[in-house]
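Marked as duplicate of an earlier ticket. Keeping the data here for the record.
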Amino acid sequence: MSAPRLDETARGVFPISATPFSPGGALDLESLDRLVDFYLERRVHGLTLLGIMGEASKLTPEESRAVVRCALARVAGRVPVVVGVSNADLRALAELANDAMAAGAAGVMVAPTRGADDDALVDYVASVFAALDPATPVVYQDYPQSTGVPLTVEAFHRMVDAFPRLVMLKHEDCPGLTKLGRIRAEAARAGRRRVSVLVGNNAIYYPQELARGADGAMTGFSYPEMLVEVYERFAAGDAEGAEDVFDVYLPLLRYEAQPGAGLAVRKELLFRRGALASPAVRAPGPTLTAEDHRELDRLVARLERRLKS
């Protein structure tokens, strides 16, 4: 059973799924089933596979397809699933996108591999849409810290106007609050189609981004229930209560957001929470020291005390 295809009305929390590996580095699909259940039990609104923090670049094409098939079978249409398909080879990008959609994905996510200026970037995105099946919904990932490709507000508006199947922006530019506010305000003034915006960067600026017009989060924080509760409180009009919840988790969220080490922290926390059979990061990748583990022990204990109180 497939979930409906993604559109501009998408809202809520679409966690970036980790990719489970055994201690020896082999893909662990049994643990992926466990991880999918973990996310669904926390009432997420969608799921994202093969993101940057899902170690997509370390997978073979066959492993990528195996992850997609396994996770989609486990989700069984209960929530929409977005699949990251970014690739410098447009043929490979389209092949993975087509396989994912055939398996029941709701849409695909693409990060740019080139674009020196606005014209070059829009031309590149046009080539991506030309390579894809015309019915495939697309999420554009704006993460210049990783891709090296900046997205201006003007270029994004051109893309929204030119490509009707562009239905979501994954907003990860940093600093990006002013940019997000401009996207919403200028689109409203022009009567432009409103696309969904979900935020990343481990949701470190989440309450402010919701206030500026974001529709939720697409990031992999190891406590997705926090992301869900903050979104739902904010959507219900309780912005102050949403920020109070966020504050409780902020020390641990900030620790997990460390550049370079964050993936190892995230997988260790997911392992401790029973969502992964192993916290292994596929090489090359970060590992935690004994001191890191002690700091995590303390941060988790502090979080648990605050949640009880």
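See parent ticket for discussion. The radius of gyration is 19 Å.
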